[in-house]
Amino acid sequence: MNVCVVTTFECTFDEFKAMFEKSMAEGGAAFMTEYELVKVNEHKSIFMGNVTDFEAMGAMMASPEAKKWDEENGCVDTVYMMQKME
Prior knowledge:
Helix content: 25-40%
CATH architecture: 2-Layer Sandwich
Shape: globular
Distance between the termini: 14 Å
């Protein structure tokens, strides 16, 4: 895993998860080899993924549809790069 995204939102976790799964089905999974989405609480999640194309990930997160959804649901992403410690 090379990316960690901590997300807060005003909608429920189930609503956020449904949007996330839709995004993955519509092409988001094409730029990842594996990922996990974990519920922290009803308004916060942590995503960890092995992203193979950062430009594609950025384009998806910055798309007009994603920005609109984020604005309507008070969604804020904090993205971290991770590196395995040897």
